[in-house]
Amino acid sequence: MTSTSIGEYRVFFFFPEMTGNIFEGVLPPTIANAPEMTKLLISRNSFSGKVPDEICKLKKLVVLDLSSNQFSGELPKCVTSLKNLQTIDLQDNKLSGDFPSNVDSWIHLTELNASRN
Asked: Which of the pair, 22 or 70, is modelled with greater confidence?
C-alpha cells in the first residue's frame, strides 16, 4: 500500500477513512500530494477554515465527504473540475457564498448534500 504525508497526517491510498476522529485545524494544502486518492472521507472531525484549492488536484476523487466539520467560506470554484465525483457531502459546516455555477461538469454525480451550512 502506498502512503504519503498530508500535513502531520499519513494518508494511505486509495482512500483514507478518517471519519469520526478528533482531527482539527485546517486541511493542509499538501492534500494535493495524494493525486491517486479516490475517496476523501473526513466527516465528523473538527477541521476548520477554507477548503483548500489544492483539493482540486485530486482528479480521481469519486467521493468527497467533508460533512460535520467547521469548514467556512466558499467552496473552491475549481471543485467543478473534479469530473469523476459521484458523491459530495458538505452538510453541517459553516460554508457560505455562492455554490459553483458550472456543476453540469459533474456528469457522474448521484448525491449532493450541502444542507445546514
From this structure: 70
pLDDT digits (tens, 9 = 90+) for 69-95: 999 999 999 999 999 999 999 999 999
8 A C-beta contact, residue 42 and residue 66: yes
**CATH for 13:** 3.80.10.10
Number of domains making up the chain: 1
Express the helix, strand and coil content of the chain in percent, nearest 5 each.
15, 30, 55
pTM metric for this prediction:
0.85
Q: Which residues of 16-51 are buried (b: 16+ CB within 10 A; e: fewer)?
A: bebeeeebeeebbebbbbbeebebbbbbbbebeeeb
